[in-house]
Amino acid sequence: MRSRRWVAVTVVVILAVAFAGLGAALVVSGGSSDQGATPTPTASEVTPGIFELRQVLFQESGETQRRPPLPPGPAEGGKNASRDLLRIDCGLAARPMAADDNVILCDSFGFRYGLGPSELPANPVDQAIALQGQSADWVVQVRLAAGAAQTFADVTKRVSAFGPPLNQLAIVLNGAVVSAPAVQEPISGGVLQITGSFTQQEAEALAASLA
Description:
Elements: E1 25-28, E2 51-60, E3 73-74, H1 81-87, E4 103-106, E5 112-118, E6 125-132, E7 138-144, H2 146-159, E8 169-173, E9 176-179, E10 191-198, H3 200-210
Antiparallel strand pairs: 1-10, 2-5, 2-8, 3-4, 4-5, 6-7, 7-10, 8-9
């Protein structure tokens, strides 16, 4: 079992499994449909890249309060978690990180998230396709590979038993947090949907980068 060395520092908001009209977000097939309030990037701010899910251990917002500033990326955790959090400058490019690192990453609005290791195995995506949603918006549907789908079911079962923010899973694309929905119940099926104000070209580019 992985060691969780970090503790919650500040809970800013509680998120929901599904988002509606709040920029890029994750809709999990089989999840609940409550609306969250956390700001999320618009389509133009989403950088296509490696798809990860990481458990949220704490989150915070505000200006950098300690010097020298530290780019987002791996962090020590433990007694230094608060210090590292206050040094993270979301305006800096993220440092290289490994899947098993604890990290502090940002979304495009400057929210900082202390995250655990990546929950999915390498190359978790079996298929990613751009689709036009019911409201004519373009979305990216992600189907996880069989092993990743089972891992995802196990992870959602585990985190759904916690209170906030430990019941949140951050969706990370190329080192940036897209959203961090809360998981209310175990989710099977392995089909996820990234929604947002995507043009057809943006959705197709994102799908191609994940496939």
